Amino acid sequence: MFIVDEKDLQYRFGDSGPKYLMRGPRMNYAMVQFPPNTDFKAHYHNIMEENFYVIEGTIEVTVDGVTHTLTPGQFIHVEPKEVHYLRNTSNTVCKLVSTLAPFVEVDKVEVENP
């Protein structure tokens, strides 16, 4: 058992990207923040499935070429090998919860953005 306080952690890119509350041993759990007009490189995972739950703002999630616009309270599940690309085209911050499982230390394959 352990307790983590999000305010003690940093986003990967300063004010954006993932902020991992847990990495392994069986899953990753992160808060993800997208300032206005930012994105996260298109990629897929060979083994891990990834989930996103929108807490605040609006996010465009493109999965295998199909774009979905998600708003607070919406959830999307991405299967292994499905290429996904996230982009905030709004003028407000977007915050998400992200989970990845099962945990694999290196499982992200970057591809060209759609």
Automatic annotation (TrEMBL):
It comes from Acetanaerobacterium elongatum. It comes from the Bacteria. It holds the Pfam family Cupin_2. This is Cupin domain-containing protein. Residues 31-98 form the Cupin type-2 domain.
